[in-house]
Amino acid sequence: MTWMRRNLFRSWWDGILSLVFGALAVYVVWALVNFVFVTGRWEIIEVNLTLLLVGRFPAEELWLVGASIVGLAFWISAASSSFTQPVENKRPWGARILDAVQRFGLLAGLGLLLIVLAEGMTPIYWALAIVGGIVAGRALGATRRAFAWVGKIPALVWHALLIAAPVTLIALTLTRSTLDSWGGFLINFYIAIISIVLSFPLGVLLALGRRSTLPIVRLLSTTYIELIRGAPLFVLLLLAGVALEFFVPVDLAPGPIFRAVTVFTLFTAAYVAEIVRGGLQSVAKGQTEAGKALGLNTSKVTFLITLPQALRNVIPAQIGQFISLFKDTTLAGAALSVLEVLNIGTAITKQDDFLGQGYIYESLAFVGLLFWVGSYVMSRESQRLEKRLGVGQR
Amino acid sequence: MSSLPSAPTRVPFWRDVRVLRWAFQLVVLALVFALLFWLYGNYQANVAKSSIPTNLRFLDNPSNFTIPGNDLDQSAPVRDAFYQGFLNTLQVAIAGIVFATILGTLVGIARLSKNFLVRTIAAAYVEVIRNIPLLLLLTFMNLAVVLQTFPRIEEAWLPLDLFVISNRGIAIPWFIGSAPILLAVGAAAILAAWATGKIRARISDATGKPARAGLYAFAVFALIALSGWVALGYTVTLPFVDDRATDGGFRLDPSFFALLVTLVIYTSSHIAEIVRGSIMAVPRGQGEAADALALKPGVKMRLVILPQAFRIAMPAVGNQYLNLIKNSSLGATISYFELTQIAQITVGNGSPAVPAFTLTLLVYLAISLITSVIVNFFNRRLALVER
Q: Domain B78-144+253-382 is in which class?
C-alpha cells in the first residue's frame, strides 16, 4: 500500500497518469501475449528457420557453422574468465546465479526458442555442445588463475592458442563453401565482426593522425573523417553496389558481401577514429609528460603509454559502435541484395504458401527479436564493463 | 693564441627533426595521392571501356519518370527531379526533427519520473526501439502497419471526423490560402512573442513583479496569428472520403507517413537517453536550491533544471539531427521520393552512377554542414560563458 501511494498516487495528477499508463501497459502486454500465443501463425518461421539463420548455406556443411559457434563460445568464455577478479568468487552462490540469469537469461531464452522452433534432436545436441564449450572455457580460465606455471604463459600466446580453434574452423568453413552462399543472421553477424576488426587499425591511425602535430597528416585525417561522417551509409552502399567495380581492376569483380564489408569497414573507421580520439583526449597530460621526461620519443610515448590507456577507456564506446554496425548490416540487404536476415524475412512472406496473408507481422517480429536480444545483451554487458573499468570515475 | 670554440656541429639532415617531420608528411601525401591516382586511373580506364560519361551533363536529360504529388512530367530534366527529391528530403527531415525533439524530451523526462509506471514504460520504449535496426522498424511501419493494417479507402478510419486514415495515406485538416504568407505571419507572430517575453523579463527585473513571460508571449502570438488568419481570409478544410479518394484537407503519402513516423520514433529514443543523461548531469545543488526556494516541481523543472540540461544536451542532440537527416535516405527502400530514391531511379534509367551518387553525397554533406552550423550557433549562445 505504501509502495503504491509513494510510486503511483502521489497526487491526483499522478493518479491520473498512473491510470492512463496502467491501462496502456495492460493493453500492450495483453496484445503481445495474444499475438505470441494465440493469433501468431509461427509456421512461417518454423518452415524457414534454417533460411533465416544461415541463408542458402550448404546443408551438409552446417556442422562447421555449429562447430565454429562452439569454438567462439569457448574462446569468449575462456578469455573473459581469465580476467575475472577473484573478489567475485566470494559472493554467495544465489547472488551469482541471479546475476548470470540477469546477464544471459535473454540469450538462453532465445536459444530455447530456436530449439523449440527447430523441432528435433540436432539443435539440442548443439546447444549442449555450446554449453560444454562455455564450461570448458571457464575451466581453462580458472586453471590459468589457479596454477602458477599456466599463469606464466604470456597473454599474447595464451590468446593466440585460444583463438586458434574458432579461426581454424571459420577458415575451414570458408574453404568448404563460397562466401556468397552465406546468408541469414549468420552473415549479419560475420559482416559486423569482420568490419569492426578491419576498421579498428584504420580508425586508430586516423585518430592518431587527427591529433598529430603534423599539419598535412592532420588535414588528411580530418578530411576523411568528416567526409565519411557527413555521408549516409545507405548511399555509400548503393554507390559501392553500382560503382565499386569501376575503381578496382576488372579481374577483381567483387561480390556483394565483399562490397558490403568494404563500405562498412571504411565507414566504421571514421567513427572508430572519433571514439579513439575521445579516448586519447581522456588520458591525462601528465602521462605524456612523464614519458617525455623518461626520454622516450613521440612514437614510443604514443604506443607504449597513451594509446594503451586510451584504448582501455574506449572499450564500452567500441561495443556501442559494434552494436550500431550490427544493426546497420541490415542495410546491405536493401542496398546490395545480400541475403541477410531482414531481406530473407520479407522475402519469405512472398512464398506461395504465405503470400498475401499478412505473415509480415510474424516474420518481422522474429527478425526483430533476434536483433533486439543481441543488441540488448551486448549493451547491458558494455554498461557492466564501463562500471568495472571505472571510466570517468578516475 | 687560443682557437675560438668551434661552431656547434650541425645535426645531419637525416636526424634533424624538422626535416624528418616534413619528409614523413611528404611520404604520407605521396602514398595518398598514389592511391587516389590508382583509383582514378582504374575508373578512367573502366569508364572509357564502356563509354560511360563522367560529367554532370546527364542532369539535362529527360528524367523518364514521374514523382507522385507534383506536376513534373516524364520530359522534365533530371535536374528538376533531383531538386524535388532534395525538397522531399528537407520536408521529412524538418518535420522529423521537430517531432523527434518533442517526443524525445517528453520520454527523457518521463524516464526520470517518480511515478513507477511512467518511468518503466518510458524505459521499455527506449530500450526496445534503440536495439532494433532502423530499417526493420521502417519495413514494419510500411509493410505491416500502413499497407496491411490501415483499412482500404472504402472502410477508412475517421477519428473525430478530423482525419482520414487508410492505406492510401493519412489526410489531415489543413488550411486554404497561401502557405508562404501564412508562414510569414507565423514568423512575425513568433518574433513579436519573443520581443514581448524579453520586455516582460526586463519589467520583472526592474519591478520584481512576476514576469509571466510565457503567458504574455503566448497571448501576443495568438492575437497576431488569429488576426492574420481572419484578416487574410484563411479557412480550414477538413478531409473527407469522396468516391474512393480523399478530398479536402492535406493528404500525406503513405510512404511519407511511414518514413516520418519511423524516423521520429527511432530518433526520439536516442534523444530521450541524451535528455535523461543531461538532466542527471545538472548539479544536484541546483534542484535542491529550487526546493529550498519552495518552487513547485513543474516550475523547478521548467525554470531551473531543463534550461541547464538543454545546454548540456545540445551538441549530442545536434548529432542526432544529423543522423536523422542521413537516415532519411532509407526512404528509398519504401519508395518515398527523396534524394536517394531519385538518384537510384535515374541511375537505373541510365544516368552514370558515379557522378549521380557523388552529387547525392555532396548534397547530404551540404545539408549536414548547414545543420551543424545552425546547431553550433545555438550551442554558442547557450554555452556557459567561462571566465
A: mainly alpha
Please give the grid coordinates belonging to residue B197. 517575453
- A181-394 CATH, one of 3.40.140.100, 3.40.50.880, 1.10.3720.10, 3.30.420.40: 1.10.3720.10
Give the pTM: 0.88
Residue bearing cell 492505406: B167
Q: Where in chain A is the domain with CATH 1.10.3720.10?
A: 181-394
**Percentage of residues of chain B with pLDDT beyond 90:** 30
- Best B273, B344, B357, B375 residue to mutate vs chain A (most A CBs within 10 Å): B357
- What are the boundaries of each domain within chain B? 78-144+253-382, 175-237
B116 shares contact with chain A (CB less than 8 Å): yes
CB contacts of B21 in chain A (<8 Å) are 214
Give the ipTM of the model, two decimals please: 0.88
Q: Give the largest Cα separation in chain B, rounded.
A: 118
Q: Are the Cβ atoms of B133 and A330 closer than 8 angstroms?
A: yes
pLDDT, tens digit, 9 for 90 and up, residues B78-136: 888 888 889 999 999 999 999 999 999 999 999 988 888 889 999 999 999 999 999 99
DSSP codes of every residue in B204-272: HHHH-S---HHHHHHHHHHHHHHHHHHHTT-EEE--EE-SSSEESSEEEPHHHHHHHHHHHHHHHHHHH
Of all residues in chain B, the one with the smallest CA distance to A14 is B115
- Residue A388: phi and psi, rounded to 5, are -70, -35
In angstroms, the CA A383 to CA B19 distance is 46
Is B116 close to A8, i.e. CB distance below 8 A?
yes
